[in-house]
Amino acid sequence: MATVTVDIVRRSMMGRALRVFWGQSKTVAGILVWIGLAVVLAFVAIAFLAPWIAPYDPNLPSGPPGAAPSAEHWFGTNRLGQDVLSRTLWGARIPLSVVALASAISLAIGAPLGLVSGFYGGYLDRFLVLVMDSIYAFPGLLLAIVVAAVIGPGVVNVSIVIALVYVPTYFRVIRNHVVAVKEELFVEASEALALPRTTVIGRYVLPSVAQNIPVIFSVSAADAILTQAGLSFLGLGLPVDIPDWGLDVSRYAGLLQTMWWAVFFPGLMIIILTTSLAFISEGLNDILNPLLRRKEAR
Amino acid sequence: MARTSGSLRVYVLQRLLLMVPMVFILLTLVFYVLRAAPGDPVGAILGERNIAYADAIRRELGLYDPLYVQYFDYLRRILTGNMGTSLYTRNSVAADVAQRLPATLELTIASMLVAVPVGILLGVISATRRDRPADIISRLVAAVMYNTPVFWFALIMQLIFSVYLRWFEVGGRLSARISFPPNVTGMYTIDSLLAGQAYTFVDAVRHLILPATTLGLVLSGFFARIVRANMLQSLQADYVEAAKARGIRRGDVFYRHALKNAMVPVATTMGLSFAILFSGAILTETVFSWEGIGRYVYLAIQNRDYPALQGAVVYYAIIMVFISLLIDIFNAWLDPRIRY
Amino acid sequence: MSLLEVEGLTVTYASRDGPIAAVRDLDLVLERGQTLGLIGESGCGKSTLGKAILRILPEGTQVEGFIRFDGKNLATADEDTLEGYRGRNLSMIFQDPMTRLDPLMTVRKHFIELIRAHEPDAKGAGAITRARRALTAVRIPPDRLNQYPHEFSGGMRQRIMIALALVFNPSLLIADEPTTSLDVIVEAQILQLLNSIKQDFDMGVLLITHNLGLVSEYADEIAVMYAGRIAERGRVEDVFAEPLHPYTKGLLESVIGLETTALKSIPGQPPDLLNPPSGCPFHPRCPAAMDVCSTAFPPTTHPRVGRDVACYLYP
Lengths: 298, 340, 315
What we know:
The structure holds 3 protein chains of 3 kinds. Chain A contains 12 helices and no strands. Chain A has helices at 2-23, 28-53, 84-90, 93-120, 122-137, 140-151, 155-182, 185-192, 197-210, 213-233, 245-252, 260-297. Mean pLDDT of chain A is 80; it is low at 292-298. Helices cover 74% and strands 0% of the residues of chain B. In chain B, helix 10 (238-245) packs antiparallel against helix 11 (250-268) and helix 12 crosses helix 13 (293-302). Chain C has 9 helices and 12 strands. Chain C has an 8-stranded mixed beta sheet, with helices on both faces. A 4-stranded antiparallel beta sheet of chain C has the order 2-1-4-5, with helices on one face. In chain C, helix 4 (124-137) crosses helix 5 and helix 5 (154-166) runs parallel beside helix 6. The model of chain C has no long low-confidence stretch (mean pLDDT 89). At the A-B interface, helix 5, helix 6, helix 10, helix 11 and helix 12 of A face helix 1, helix 2, helix 6, helix 7 and helix 12 of B.
């Protein structure tokens, strides 16, 4: 009987959250999220469908080298005569797969650690927080450079490198939220009912904390894409000649004057993708925060 | 200033003590990553080339010693300031870093000078005109700026301002024909100003503007977001309403109460911004051939200069802890509640 | 001429779900040196009324009607004029003293800021003397001027707020639930303090609260507010002895005394101000409701000397 009451409290909060989210579609914040989501999904589609929608093979010369944008080559060609549009479309694959894999790893490591650390507290918590804060304060790119220099190139390796940079982000947010939720009444209530701790964590703390994950993801994913592009620009992390935005920018940096399009368009893609992710995170933040604050007001 | 509230001195002392384990942890992490991580760092960097040479390097770096010996050796060397010799420049890494540090500092400070006002401006516009077109536009601008890849932005800026418009220089810190100002801080702008060398100063500034603006604008997007969020909160604060009720003029309420309180969390994020700045500096210095630590790191990668890379990272870790200490002290000075 | 005359005041908030009229066509009069207790449930609009008089409501809130203070209509006054009045001729103290002082400023800075806002040429030394005197009047050691708000307890912070409110000897003090978040002992201290001060300065006080006990102790007259309108008004002794409006009756009956054996409450919920009931807003919950009650808001009548009621029971 008592468990049912606690369940109702928890479920109604989640239910309310979801209903409000749907209802937010017309607000500024809601629109941002939808736009962002649409663009990101478009990029994912592009990455998947690149072999079919790209007009030319990205690695084979398909036109005169250094040609300006034209009807045959919308984004022009680069020094090797490769079509820039095709390279840009194919170039979506690496960043997206790296970031997807890296985010999964960061989440898999950072979230459980944050959960445990926040919930159990004590020396373990203090130690983990110190370690994570130290890593977090360290410049992401530098950390990535160091690790990448050591473990060498490759898509999986780069993913691991990037995952390492963002583990602290997942850790902190989750941990801080757990610490806050611990004080909530319904957790106290469930503890008063002598439910085993794992049940308390799994059934009550986790759903509340889980709403943070999309926000953390969109924020760190945007940053991860920039970090990965930075790594490629510096010449780390990828075997040469897989189309990649960062890589392409670095290769044509010297030829900027004569072939600005080879540099401009890959970078533009990065901006559009990361800004869309930023839209998602900002919109989600705007929607979820008032919810949290409204709870406190009660 | 006589304060009866929690002593700032005690706080500083506490933070200094806390610094020790933090530095320790960072150094240990750097060590672990670079030595104990799977893969042969020397091999990865030197390649299959000269096995005897690689072997000699490994011996010199102590890579064949048991791990704990390496660790203590590493710590000992850091304490004595000896980080080895750069394979490329042939100087001691410590000297290399010391020589290049002022350049990066100069760039960092100049970038902050751009980022902070622009960020505050965008954030305040957003917060005071919430949900109106001005807010949406400035949020969009801030988002785009923060999410622009620094290296790409640097290249575009270079193209437009240095190549097409010829307003600024393409790279470097000083034109070739100009001699260095007498060395006081190592920052050419300040040194030339101190020495009264107007021409040198102008030249140094002309070189500094583009990289600083590039980095600064990207960082300003980050600040704008924080300022906006904090301003929205502080504008609703109870003490703001109470101040209005006392007849304090709206301008004063805005600046003295709302804005100042909103800035406190911004100061907290300064530490994070330095991290962002340094990452950005690596890329910016590379594009603009700015001889700072960032470019040093880049060259170290290109030249497989392993000791240089390690040295730069270790120095950076230490500098970073110092900066976060300074920021914490600054915060405690700003916000008297923290000292408890 | 009365100290404060409110006539036909309507305050409409702009909310996400539509306009909300928190105060509707309200009339109120306060005389010099008089303490009026404004009683009502949470959400009845009493805080809004207080803030409306000072015109410190959030942007986008509409204020219609007349607010005559000392001859000037505050409802239409421009911001500069209002800034001159606030904190000098009329002051307000709020419910939650913990968050009402700027955490980054010492108490001294709060006083100096206040004094300079109204007297730009005030000398620092003179301002500090006045600050110390104000603190002494509220029984806070004046040497604590240089401390920060977080170094004071809730009760002390409220006393600091009172000191700030009284620096310029205002003729009207609006006290919006000044002791709601404080414990009973501190509450008594604060109200006794207010009592002695108002006598010294011949100050009118609008005491906004939901605590009938406070009103009975410290107010001369009581006004009962419901759903943005005044239901009843009169001298405290008269209203308590013979409550006229059914709502007032319900309120008084629900007060717990030593002889209470069973809890009595008013059935139903406070009205939704987005969609208020037609006519008299209390009619859905009123035990004496008649058909006419749902047609239009009842006019205010005076069935006894010095009593105002808005109820069809007293046409």
